[in-house]
Amino acid sequence: MSLLVALVILVGLLVIGVPVPIVFLTTVIYFIFTQGYDPSFLVPYGFSQLNNTVLLAVPLFIIAGSIMSYGGIGKRIVEFAQIFVGRVKGGLGFVTVIACAIFGAISGSAAAALTTVGAIMFPRLREVGYSKGFAASLITSSSILGLLVPPSAIMILYAWVGNQSVLASFLATLGPGIILMLLMSIINYFYMSKEEEKVLSIVRVGSNTPTPPTSKNSRKIIITAIPGLLMPIIILGGIYGGIMTPTEAAAISAVYAIPVGLWVYKELDKKSLYYALIKAGTTTGVLMVMLYSIMILSRIIVMEDVPSKLTQFLLSITDNTVVLLLMINLFLILVGMIMDDVSAVLISTPILLPVVVNLGIDPIHFAGIIGVNIGVGLLTPPTAPLLYLGSRTSDVRVNEMLGPTFLLLLFAWIPTLLLTTYIPEISLFLPRLLLGN
After folding, report:
1. Vertex 424: Cα angle to 422 and 426 (nearest 5)
2. Which tens digit of pLDDT belongs to each residue from 144-191?
């Protein structure tokens, strides 16, 4: 009964808009007063769990993403991607998808990709004939590639909470991310084939106005983009080459972004760097409070034997693995609908990971499943956190985005989710290939 009441409190507070860290702390306080848990045990436990160098990667990637958004790196990535697909019908849509994937490989954040790439791409998409609703929906949906393309902040947290390999968790979501990129690009092509789109071409550096491409212009864009494009190469090459840990790579990306923004692109100055660091610091502070709260709550979840009870409940309904996985997916989508990506991973992992392991599902396979599910939840009404952020970022009403968003969910996200869930090799192939068994 106490678990049911705690769940009602948790969901109710989230639905009415109470900040997530306060929601988790409130739930912890409820258990302390009703179940008699000793605060002198729980409080130190939360701090001890935060004492982990792996966690340093998350705020460092937040800092890197914040500096990138002020330093002009995102704009150069967009212009670089447009050289190769900008002239194809629906080419700017392809550019949006690719730019979000590249930006995700640097920042590891969906919100950072949405705000940075969205600010650049939305006016350009509108100029070449995209409807407001589809442009905003495509940017919002593509931004979630920041959660799937490594290095991913939520996969660092999944590996930390679930005691799994960070590198394997990174690779588990790359396969689903590639499938999602392809499906969204295909949908973009067919959607825009019904529109009277203007001729697409390479944009002039620093301008939103399409201009005829020239080899000289293209060379200039490529050369200008190289410093920004080196970031994912350095990060991923260093991590998978065994040269640096994810935490070290995150630190290098944060430090590297400063001189690139200051002296190479010259769009970052002392004032904007200050604001970027303040913004990153605020986000990190909120995140640390959230992590502390969820660690205490996850300990209570284990002590209340929630995973075992949930396993027994699911098996009492059916022992069919296909159906069980479908039920777990629905649960994850619901969690994603009412929480941001970080909170969803932190609350779902300690509850569901023991359950799926008991069902014989590989924890790295589950990393891919949880990553795609959270993406679906972030786009699915009624709460749809990222959908509303996309609406505010592009200044487009949510009702204008609903039709295109459901189109992308139905023909891109749901197929990717089903493939990832029921074909384990999509998530396991790359970890086994690069890291062994």
Report:
1. 105
2. 998 899 888 899 999 999 999 999 999 999 999 999 999 999 999 888
Give the C-alpha separation, 30 to 13, whole Å. Answer: 13
Distance CA 168, CA 361 (A): 15
Count of beta carbons in the 10 Å neighbourhood of residue 212: 10
pLDDT for the residue numbered 66: 82
Q: List b or e across 233-261, with b for residues whose CB sees 16 or more CB atoms inside 10 angstroms.
A: ebbbebbbeeebbbbbbbbbbbebbbebb
320-342 pLDDT, tens per residue? Answer: 989 999 999 999 988 888 777 88
Under 8 Å CB-to-CB from 167, ≥6 apart: which residues?
239, 240, 246, 431, 434, 435
pTM of structure? 0.86
Residue 287 pLDDT level (bands cut at 50, 70, 90): confident
Domain boundaries of the chain, sorted by first residue: 38-435
* Dihedral sign, Cα of residue 123, residue 129, residue 133, residue 137: negative
Neighbour-count burial for 380-390, b at 16+ CB within 10 Å, e otherwise = beebbbbbebb
Query: Which token pair is 226?
Result: 């190289």
| Residue among 311, 299, 322 at smallest CA distance from 50 | 299
Q: Does the pLDDT value for residue 390 go beyond 70?
A: yes
CA pair distance 43, 64, nearest whole angstrom: 31
As a whole number of angstroms, the distance between CA 102 and CA 265 comes to 18
Token pair of 3 as six digits: 């678990």
| 6-64 per-position pLDDT tens digit | 888 887 887 787 887 888 889 889 888 888 888 888 889 888 888 888 888 888 888 88
Collect all residues with Cβ–Cβ distance below 8 Å to 284 and sequence separation of at least 6: 58, 59, 62, 63
Q: How far apart are CA 270 and CA 28, in angstroms?
A: 41
Q: Which residues pair with 210 in a beta bridge?
A: 203
